[in-house]
């Protein structure tokens, strides 16, 4: 059968058999690396200009629609898909230089992000190998030694094994990606809630804070844990050994404090979302069981 790339449509086609939406088509015209391509993506070399004809199968009923779809590539960029060859030719010929420049600008920004992401993963894997390979978790800490792991210490310190370190790293990456998506989708305020019964003014306290959109996108059991320093000390834990989504505060418990703590966490990572506490009863209440101790998944 071979490996296909998937072309995602910017506008769904309607299946004539079941009336379901068809969101994509599979092709073997490019590198065949099981890639997912969207309009505006670079799919080939800059000199390539062509129209690709593919049979259209339904995502829902898996039946052949009896129709074809025409995938248009101009200067190596996927510019759209049409249900007739004539419309495909028109789309290919109507692409103007200004729009092409904007697409290349977006592609360069994506390339820069992906390059940073690649370096981040490589650095984490190198630190992971050194941390566990040399059993540095068993040795007394020194400021100079830990400086080497400044970017990844929250994934390494406090983790029980390499698997938990990887889970911490991936979970945090997924949270950031989901927050980026929410920002791009135009969300301005994040609604949060917690299931625990709390009393305002408590000195030793901890709450698991839920944000349904993030929980669903990242498959998290909860989103943040906000904990008082006194509770942290009572539990015998250290702040620098907690995962990234743990927030330590010094004040007694209040809903306002929890909201401000989450908002500060977001601000520290470049997000300008407002945060609003809602009652537990008003929440959607998305839940899944924890998969790995010490992580949210």
Outline:
The chain is of the alpha/beta class. It contains 8 helices and 11 strands. It has helices at 85-94, 97-133, 143-147, 153-156, 162-184, 212-218, 229-234, 255-267; strands at residues 5-14, 21-27, 36-37, 49-57, 64-74, 77-82, 189-192, 206-209, 224-228, 246-249, 274-277.
- Strands of the widest sheet, in order across it, are 2-1-3
> Which strand-content bin applies to the residues?
15-25%
Task: Tell me the number of strands.
Answer: 11
Count structural domains. Answer: 3
How much is the average pLDDT?
89
Q: Supply the helix-strand structural class.
A: alpha/beta
Compute the number of helices. Answer: 8
Termini gap: 34 Å
Rg calculated over all Cα atoms: 24 Å
What's the overall geometry? elongated
How would you characterize this protein structure?
This protein has 297 residues and is of the alpha/beta class. It has 3 domains: 5-95, no CATH class; 113-181, no CATH class; 186-282, no CATH class. It is built from 8 helices and 11 strands. It has helices at residues 85-94, 97-133, 143-147, 153-156, 162-184, 212-218, 229-234, 255-267; strands spanning 5-14, 21-27, 36-37, 49-57, 64-74, 77-82, 189-192, 206-209, 224-228, 246-249, 274-277. The strands form 4 sheets. The protein has a 3-stranded mixed sheet, with no helix packed on it. A hairpin with a 2-residue loop joins strand 5 (64-74) and strand 6. Helix 5 (162-184) packs across helix 6. The chain is elongated. Residues 286-294 have low confidence and may be disordered.
């Amino acid at each position: 059968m071979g490996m296909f790339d998937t072309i995602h449509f910017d506008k769904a086609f309607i299946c004539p058999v079941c009336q379901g939406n068809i969101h994509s088509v599979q092709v073997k015209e490019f590198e065949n690396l099981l890639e997912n391509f969207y309009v505006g993506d670079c799919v080939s070399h800059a000199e390539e200009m062509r129209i690709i004809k593919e049979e259209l199968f339904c995502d829902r009923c898996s039946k052949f629609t009896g129709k074809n779809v025409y995938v248009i590539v101009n200067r190596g960029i996927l510019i759209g898909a049409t249900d007739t060859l004539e419309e495909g030719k028109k789309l290919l010929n109507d692409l103007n230089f200004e729009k092409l420049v904007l697409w290349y600008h977006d592609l360069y920004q994506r390339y820069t992000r992906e390059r940073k992401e690649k370096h981040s993963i490589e650095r984490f894997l190198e630190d992971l190998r050194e941390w566990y390979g040399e059993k540095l978790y068993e040795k007394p800490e020194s400021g100079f030694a830990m400086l080497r792991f400044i970017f990844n210490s929250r994934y390494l310190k406090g983790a029980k094994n390499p698997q938990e370190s990887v889970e911490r790293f991936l979970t945090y990456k997924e949270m950031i990606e989901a927050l980026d998506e929410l920002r791009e989708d135009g969300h301005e305020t994040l609604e949060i809630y917690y299931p625990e019964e709390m009393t305002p003014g408590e000195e030793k306290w901890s709450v698991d804070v839920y944000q349904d959109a993030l929980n669903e996108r990242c498959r998290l059991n909860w989103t943040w844990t906000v904990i008082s320093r006194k509770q942290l000390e009572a539990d015998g834990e250290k702040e620098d050994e907690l995962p990234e989504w743990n927030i330590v505060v010094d004040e007694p418990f209040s809903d306002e404090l929890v909201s401000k703590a989450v908002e500060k966490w977001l601000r520290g990572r470049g997000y300008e979302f407002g945060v609003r506490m809602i009652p537990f009863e008003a929440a959607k209440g998305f839940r899944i069981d924890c998969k790995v101790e010490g992580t949210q998944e």
